[in-house]
């Protein structure tokens, strides 16, 4: 698995975790665990955006 594939995999896992936590806490997006999961997903998405801007060597 290359870096891009791994990043996409991590994004998908984080997305699923966020959905599960949001459901668990009745869609309370202010709950600390939901916020933490959302921030983690945000970081991964930013990395993916950067990845798509950098031309391959």
TrEMBL record:
GO terms for molecular function: protein dimerization activity. Gene3D superfamilies: Helix-loop-helix DNA-binding domain. Pfam families: SpoOE-like (PF09388). This is Spo0E like sporulation regulatory protein. GO terms for biological process: regulation of sporulation.
């Amino acid at each position: 698995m290359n870096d891009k594939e791994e990043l996409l995999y991590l994004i998908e896992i984080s997305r699923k975790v966020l959905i599960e936590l949001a459901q668990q806490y009745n869609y309370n997006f202010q709950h600390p665990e939901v916020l933490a999961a959302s921030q983690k997903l945000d970081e991964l998405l930013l990395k993916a955006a950067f990845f798509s801007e950098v031309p391959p060597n």
